[in-house]
């Protein structure tokens, strides 16, 4: 989501939902995901060590110029998307 869509939070959330659900997001889904992102971003801005842990512990250092707090917030969003019932059972 961070590398494929550079425009806005809504565009990134839409991209993630499309990848996981193979359909366009519903407005309330998009609202919830963007709210989750904003909430997590605020949290990680106040807890940089936690952001570094979640965003880099498995993947190593972030690419040049990417914000660790943004990566951490999008990691939380991605985990939610991948654990949705519709994602798991879409096949």
Can you give a write-up of this model?
There is one protein chain. The protein is an all-alpha fold and 91 residues long. The chain has one domain (9-88). The chain contains five helices and no strands. Helix 1 crosses helix 2 (27-46), helix 2 packs across helix 4 and helix 3 (48-56) crosses helix 4. The longest helix has 20 residues, at 27-46. It is globular. The protein starts with 8 loop residues before the first helix and ends with a helix. The mean pLDDT is 86.
Short description:
By secondary structure, the chain is an all-alpha fold. It contains five helices and no strands. The radius of gyration is 13 Å and the shape is globular.
**SSE succession:** HHHHH
**Shape verdict:** globular
Identify low-pLDDT runs: none
Total domain modules = 1
Q: Could you give a short account of the major beta sheet?
A: none
Average pLDDT across residues? Answer: 86
Write the layout of secondary structure elements.
Layout: H1 9-21, H2 27-46, H3 48-56, H4 68-82, H5 85-88
What labels would you give this structure?
mainly alpha; 5 helices; globular; single chain; 91 residues
């Amino acid at each position: 989501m961070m590398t494929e869509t550079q425009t806005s939070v809504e565009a990134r959330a839409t991209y993630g939902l499309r990848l996981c659900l193979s359909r366009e997001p519903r407005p309330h889904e998009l609202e919830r995901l963007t709210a989750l992102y904003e909430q997590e971003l605020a949290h990680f801005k106040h807890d940089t060590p936690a952001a570094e842990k979640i965003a880099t512990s498995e993947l190593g250092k972030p690419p040049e110029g990417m914000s660790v707090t943004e990566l951490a917030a999008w990691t939380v969003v991605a985990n939610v998307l991948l654990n949705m019932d519709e994602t798991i059972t879409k096949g």
